[in-house]
Design a protein that fits this description.
This protein has 149 residues and is an all-alpha fold. 44% of the residues lie in helices and 0% in strands. It has helices spanning 2-17, 20-23, 57-72, 96-99, 104-113, 133-147. The longest helix has 16 residues, at 2-17. It starts with a helix and ends with a helix. The structure holds heme C. Heme C is lined by residues 67-68, 70-72, 82, 86, 88, 90-91, 102, 106-107, 110-111, 115, 118, 120-121, 123-124, 127, 139, 143.
Length: 149
Amino acid sequence: MRWAAALPLALLLCAVGCGEPTTAPDAPAEEIPAPPEAVPEPAPAPAVPVGNLRGDAASGRELYALYCATCHGQGGKGDGPAGQVIDPRPRDHTDATYMGTLTDRDVYRVIEQGGASVGKSPLMVAWGGVINEQGLRDLVAYVRSLSGT
Ligand code: HEC
């Protein structure tokens, strides 16, 4: 009788405590290999940083020439060779009236996550996988300099 009464208690204690020795890590953390393939694909949209997003405009100009000018034109007027044959046309970054409606975070987000992420053309692709955070900040600074906003 006493044994029968003690059994549920023993099971309960075991449910709470018996798992611990096997789950406790017995290998040092540095021996556990990092599984890069465990990163989910597609990854959720990264959060846009807060604070000052304007990096170095001169570096941004070089990135712009490399990645953006084919569509937007080096001067940012939306008149690059590829930009002339797509619809909608690339945004004119010298248009202060329009660009003034966008915050730096808006500009950063559309460059990082693409036009589709903000309900605009998917032809404005996401550059977050190609250009690192500093590069994105530099591009924000350069794009801003084109309109003086
Ligand atoms: C394949 C052509 C193409 C390339 C390359 C391209 N864009 Fe665009 N971009 C577009 C188009 C098209 C739009 C207009 C989207 C719309 O208005 O729906 C646009 C819009 C934008 C906008 C304005 C978004 C808004 O909210 O109105 C910004 C800022 C921008 N692009 C920055 C860049 C930067 C920086 C690069 C280079 C890293 C780049 N784009 C490369 C086609 C391109």
